[in-house]
Amino acid sequence: MTGAEASTEPLGGAGASAGALGAAAPGPGAAAARATAAILRDTLHGAHRGVVVDSPPGAGKSTLVVRAARELAAAGRPLMIVAQTNAQVDDLVDRLATAEPDLPVGRLHSSDPNPYDPALDQHPAVVTSARAAELTGLDVVVSTAAKWAHTKGVEPWGHAIVDEAYQMRSDALLAVAGLFERALFVGDPGQLDPFSVVGAEQWAGLAYDPSASAVSTLLAHNPELPQHRLPVSWRLPASAAPLVSAAFYPYTPFRSGTGHGDRRLSFGVRSDGSAADRVLDEAAESGWGLLELPARHTPRTDPEAVRAVALVVRRLLDRGGAASSERAEEPVPLTADRIAVGTAHRDQAAAVRAALADLGVPGVTVDTANRLQGREFDVTVVLHPLSGRPDATAFHLETGRLCVLASRHRHACVVVCRAGVTELLDDHPSTEPVQLGVTVKFPDGWEAMMSTLDQWSGHRVVWRP
Amino acid sequence: MSLITTLARLEAVRAGRAQARATVLHRHLSDRPLAFVPLTTAGEAGAPLGAMVGTDRDAPRLLVVAQPRDRDLRFAFLADLAEAVLPYVESYADGVEAEERKETDPETGRKVPVEVELCTDAPQLLVPSAAGVEFVRLLGRSMRFRRTAEDDPDTPYPAPARVPLLGRWLTHYGERSRVPGSSLLLPMTGLLSRHWATGQSHVEDQHLGALLAWIDPPEGESGAEAALRAETGRGPDGLLCCPPAGPATDPAFDNRLLAPATARYDAARAAGSPAALSRAEAEIRDLLASQLRPSWDALWRGADLLRTLPEGARVADRWKRDRWSYTGHRDRVRAGEPPQPKRDDAVAAAQKLAVRETAQARLDAQEALDDPLVMAERRVAGEAFAGRVTEVEMAYSDAKVPRPRPLVTVLTEDRPQLAESAKVYRALAGGKTQTGEFVSYAPGGPVVRLTGGMGRGKVPEEGSVPQEGDHVCWTLFEHAPRGGPELPDAEAVPWTHGGPPAAVAEAPDPVTDEDFV
Q1: Quick one: which of A26, A91, B1, B396 could link to A30 by a disulfide (CB 3.0–4.6 Å)?
Q2: Using the beta-carbon criterion (under 8 Å), do A171 and B354 form an inter-chain contact?
Q3: Partner-chain contact B486 A150, CB within 8 Å
Q4: What is the pLDDT of residues B242-263, one digit of tens each?
Q5: Per the database record, which ranges form the DNA2/NAM7 helicase-like C-terminal domain (chain A) (predicted)?
Q6: Residue B381 CB neighbours (<10 A)
């Protein structure tokens, strides 16, 4: 992942419009700035060993991590940063080095071939090594949890920042927690939970259940730790933030950093009246579009739905889309690298890639929800996880999966789905066993599916093949 | 469920009998397994009712609890069970071979080779179904903390001498069975449904009688008909023709036959009549035998069917890990270590999860490499591709000392999900794995750059580079997945996970009024 694809929101301050909010409420910039100040105060001067920050989609999590890292470094505290994937580590190092070119940053990497993004070599203050001992003494050392877990025989760090902590498993934290004294845990509780390929029910309900998320273990053992929340999403437009907030974060609402008139999507070519064009017009107008295919049970790689997804993307590019936002004075042409397609399964992503190649569309990101986590685009096209299915399993009902898919866009999101999902949901109530001692997550996937579909049905365009 | 399994199930429906899901046997099946068919009492958790146990299919040992609510009789049953199981389990303890293993030297911190004992074979327990495995675990938990008179002369209700030891072994076997691909404790339904696809649902496959009816239907009858009869067919007495394989019993049997027989037993005991008592006891034995024997025979019939398949080439590797597991527990028992704790601590839980995840990945890879039918599932899923080599172009790396990096083009109809420079793996003769890297698509198929498995020289070793016309199969998954990272010692649990354990042992549960009910 490069910096251009990831979110680059301001952390409060001026620039963002107060939008439709009343004059009495503080502007989103001020609210975000206040939250950030409190987080940094607890991190730098607090009495507790840990601080937890919940961040909704696009709320400036990465910006916060970079800011906290720089302030800790400025205060002379050696810092290690734990991220979950190599792409996240490379992205963080790039941002740190871009924000402060003189800051000595270490990139601890694996000994595999091509272990890190070669773009990091252009930063003079970045040192890369496969051995932690060669990086000691640098202000900041960044690596993945997996690599840190193999680090032995080094002096522990005074401070750590754990990024994407809700996607980190408890056992991964167990393996690295001996390396630091205090830590700032940052993550999005609404995204996909970590998982295990084998059953872990025998530990369900234990505070240190190794398959649970790092944050749930941390808070179970340290309930007194301060918990903060970033209150403003700079990514999601005013049309999307209320829906995502209500459907996936019912008890911790957030708002959009921009107002209804601040972002616009327009096309150079008029609609040809086809369903793909009409759903694009609807999405450009309202931020959401639901392209509904006729009800049918299909294999996972539903050829008709896959073609519909590819066609929507093709029309989006053909019609000369342009995005106007608070970032630029002039509308910015919508290019392939600003568009993403999200699916539930890898074979679906592969089928969409093949369909796009057939239509001659290169450069569009097509991936599963797991791999789209943390990324940002102008427009997304989503193949609904329940489209064409005869059953609704726990995998397909997982709240985090739908949340990731519905919260990657800055302008508009088109959902492609077969009719009949509401009936499917009625036929498949949630039947997951209740485990004693496990905190029940709200909302459950069933409820989130229902409430989002309910909203999207107002933006429906029916596709007739 | 993979596409090929779905297809096999559809074909099973059409053909009226189960279809093969495997061409080889993917689990180790001992020459002399111990079969164990337990029954439990309805409405009373963990109260065994009876069991058939033994290694000789023609001479099962029948153990019975005439009044399951009488705890003395329950203990007598468990003592008998210990006498039936432990001699078998212990009979493998002394056949050992020497193995070299790397261990960390406590002084230098280096890994040094140490010679240790490894049992040449291990005892294997077979139960009819997954519920039987769960029952083994429950029995283990209920026994391993019992105190014998030898442990503590003042204990009010001492357990028979060998009962806690049986509890420890059953706990070990129950826990081991959670490791994917392990074979120390296996349910017959699981074994059979791994190797055959029936035309019924997964839940229905839990019924051993119905499953066997699909795999090996009687002459002139379809699997579906035979399975329906096995599930629901009742005789003129209203009892199931094919009693459930336990541990739960048929409620009709409980109500019509068992409850009156138990009442007669209670009455005889109250009357103090030894003749009536032994008559009532014999009656219960006969009743339970009538329920257990069909499952016992079905279990051995399942084993016969499995033995028609040749064992997969990598099954021995996994069985060796089971032998290590058995040897390890034997050593812990011999060293006088306490029974397994009630709950895993943070480190033990994380370690077990890591071991099982590695075992799952290893099992998935080994099954595919052992069995073309399983590999076909992975190929259909885009996780492997097979085909004929159409071109081999010699190339070298850019390093100071150039290494051979030949480019191999494979003609295939498979559609692997190859990302840019994705790693691929190929099994070589002799058990080694060759690594490669996806380069690009040529007309006909993908081009792979070989990156390993060619020896150390400038020229690749003989036979390590495929030739034009060779048939090759590359996988996108690793063949020998690596284990997880080292975890801290149990005494050094970090603050995020509750810190080091308290110095004092966990206090026993407080005694409440309910303890005296």
Answers
A1: A26
A2: yes
A3: yes
A4: 898 879 999 999 999 999 999 9
A5: 306-418
A6: 17
pLDDT at A21 over 60: no
What average pLDDT does range B40-61 have in this prediction?
92
Cβ contacts of A421-427, under 8 Å, gap ≥ 24: A421/A384, A421/A386, A421/A387, A421/A449, A421/A453, A422/A450, A422/A453, A424/A386, A424/A389, A424/A390, A424/A391, A424/A392, A425/A386, A425/A392, A425/A449, A425/A450, A427/A392
CA distance B286 to B50: 11
Which residues on A lie below 8 Å from B379 (Cβ)?
none
pLDDT averaged over every residue in chain A: 89
CA pair distance A310, A305, nearest whole angstrom: 9
Interface of B with A in 448-487 (CB under 8 A): 484-487
pLDDT higher at B106 or A444: A444
Tokens of A297: 């049970």
Determine the Cα–Cα distance for residues B43 and B49; give it in Å rounded to an integer: 12
Give the model's pLDDT for residue B516: 64
Tens digits of per-residue pLDDT, A90-106?
999 999 999 999 999 99
Domain-by-domain residue ranges, chain B?
A: 3-340, 367-475
Please give the pLDDT value at position A5: 39
Give the tens place of pLDDT for each residue, A141-152: 999 999 999 988
User: If phi over 0 gives left and psi between -120 and 50 gives alpha, with beta otherwise, what is residue A205?
Assistant: left
| A152, A198, A353, A395: best to mutate for the B interface, most B CBs within 10 A | A198
Chain A residue numbers with beta carbons less than 8 Å from the beta carbon of B349 are 171, 203, 206, 208-210
Interface test with A, best of B179, B201, B497 (most A CBs within 10 A): B497
The size of the A-B interface in CB pairs under 8 A is 99
CA distance B166 to chain A (A): 22
Q: Do B349 and A206 touch (CB under 8 A)?
A: yes
Cβ(A165)–Cβ(B475) below 8 Å: no
Tokens found for residue B92: 């493998």
Q: Are the CB atoms for B65 and B77 separated by under 8 Å? A: yes
Task: State the amino acid at position A400 in one-letter form.
Answer: G
Whole-structure pTM value: 0.90
- Average pLDDT score over residue span B104-115: 80
In one letter, which amino acid is A76? G
Looking at domain B367-475, its CATH architecture is Beta Barrel (2.40)
